[in-house]
Amino acid sequence: MAENQAFGVSTAAVPQGGSKCFDDDGRLKRTGNVWTASAHIITAIIGSGVLSLPWATAQLGWIAGPLAMFLFAVVTYYTSLFLSACYRSGDPVSGKRNYTYMDAVEANFGGFNVKLCGFVQYLSLFGIAIGSTIASAISMMAIKRSNCFHASGGKDPCPINSNPYMIAFGIVEIILSQIPDFDQLWWLSIVAAVMSFTYSTIGLGLGVSRVAETGEIKGNLTGISSGTATQSQKVWRNFQALGDIAFAYSYSMILIEIQDTIRSPPSEGKTMKKATLVSVTVTTLFYMLCGCAGYAAFGDMSPPNLLTGFYTPYWVIDIANAAIVIHLVGAYQVYCQPIFAFVEKYASEKFPANKFITKEIEIPIPGFRPYKFNLFRLVWRAVFVIVTTLISMLLPFFNDVVGLLGAIGFWPLAVYYPVEMYILQKKIPKWSSRWVRFQILSVACLIISIAAAIGSVAGVLIDLKSYKPFTTSF
Question: What is the pTM of this model?
């Protein structure tokens, strides 16, 4: 029997060349293409992070802000190409498949690196689940607040507690988390990708309309002025802004898992290169427009979440925030599938005779393939969602959490491991000019990640001084 290492599913082995129903590794034929892979990537990239970009641009200014977004895009694109080349070990067409990020690290390094990579990857994914829950609650609260603001004519500040909205989001995720694996998420990713374009376009339009209405392009070349923040606050915020931008481009941690859904021929690497180019180009264009339009509209007063700065036209704000919630519902699932798959695979290997873990009950669904119900999946995934929801209720600080997540995951997952694995794959000689360039890139990104982490931790500590868990309203 050949085992699906990504999701712990066993299928009958077939000859190396594959067949009409099976691929060369014995798994059912993969059906993904450039567009489904692009949808997964866009769902992962254009998330809640786009809403913090005007704030990040405000901290850095008109020169450093757009430049930072462009540089992060370039780095993300090239390191994603390095990582996609590691999907197969050896020959890019017929080499052994690495189903997950950890499989790729194990094939190239093994030992301690696998455990370290797994820890960072799953910690980042866990954190993104928390960030998605916080962002969705903020958007749902924004809908309530805009309607309240409209009804009171702007007289009521409309303080709202975020906890009920986080709980509602968690309930929806408990239900959707029962979708077994990535292959069955394609429709949710497409819906989420459409929603991401919807709210990004609305945010961009509102920023442009605000500039047109006032006839003034706000902001300055060096970021927030001394009157808005102290010198030390400006330093911390600059670091945090870099973390926000890094988070906005984070998807490397699930790149291999997305690539494992792609059919071949052509080779999965070629298809993934096209999908990466399409996705990073589109998202960078949106990021530049949204970040700059929001900064031009609000200047030093750019809000942590772009859409919270607008109250009219309230029905447009409601549509945009509803689109964010729908997108985050899908993004949560895309990011959490690798965690779900890892835990379920480990449990089934550790306790192969335990019926609670391994037994699947087929439930027929007219017009679709039967749904395989598993009791362990139901319980464990529900517990996971509940835990992320509770942590979100304890730390509902959108910008600080976003910056910290970007800092934690960017260097090791988006730069270090892709670069080092690519060096091994291509047998690049140590101390050659190419090797030196790669090391300079890696060290520079490490320094940025450390600075971003420091700035975000400082932000969390400041927020905690005035926050009371489960009671503070926003």
Answer: 0.74
